[in-house]
């Protein structure tokens, strides 16, 4: 028998990950101890490991393109896909506190987000196997471009094709609209998007989605 | 600390419900006792209840159409959305055994699938509030049409706009392609699909998806 609070958290998390719950601003406070246990107790890491295993299976199944795959691309999100904000969100009660733009900016400027090990392994595998990796982030180029570029490098994300930030022209656009437009441009250059990985459904919906999308878990916040 | 087997089942189920795991034919046999506990121990029902709550919240947020909503439609899948095959799958080790077309047909012909209570409640709410409900099923019209129609009626699914079966012309098509074409026809008649509910991602992907989709849990089988 699962305790009532744990049971509610399981249902809530399922609704988040299956894209049923949308537009939520904070994690329900009765979930605090459960989201903490999920993020820190090993299940989050095991969930990531299984998804990366599935991505690797998919890669091994796909038939190489006729031009030897030189234009085969993968799209990876940055925050809580490549690098982790868990340390920051720990101080925000794992998302039970509302989003704090100034606090998050200060954290991101430090450039100290650790790599998510499973995704770093995937990234290195993709680069080693000749895929062109595009890192697409909603972080603002002007204010966070340098810190983020440095952060990714110091965590081992080396060898990507391009790192794309949100520029002034996209300000006010939803993540889904902005990322769709970037993917459209990537495809227009002749790349074929064979996979797309992100922790938010807004990374994985919209236009030019590529052949396959993979949703990484994130029960701490929702980006529209 | 979650036991290793339970932890693996959680990761696996998350991958299924987030649409990361695709094309799987059976539930991994090490998950048997966990999928059984999930389906029969209450968590499955609680997960369904929360999703139906979210559907009701969505309905209360949407602005009625200009014509008073007379053409506002909902799409509901049938198997393991409106009515449950859990009793049948219990005899198939909750999906650890491979799909058995003849066995499933014999079960469906009995017309004894019980309603899923949360979805029956949703269905009645939709009908009472003037939505046009379309039940779209991959069941074959010729062989299972009568038994299914009777089964839905004896379980209280009364007042729907239309119940649509797979006909010979769609044979061999994926559920996603078949259901997309049916939704396209529904929209062409002038209906606006405001919501779409199913236990399979193939119910919820493709074309003419409507304004919002809701994925119900189903860790027992995968329909492409």
TrEMBL record, chains A, B:
GO terms for molecular function: acid phosphatase activity; nutrient reservoir activity. Keywords: Glycoprotein, Signal, Storage protein. The keyword Signal applies. It comes from the Eukaryota. InterPro entries: Acid_phosphat_B-like, Acid_phosphatase_pln, APS1/VSP, HAD-like_sf, HAD_sf. Coiled coil: none annotated. Belongs to the APS1/VSP family. May function as somatic storage protein during early seedling development. NCBIfam families: plant-AP. This is Acid phosphatase 1. It comes from Salix udensis.
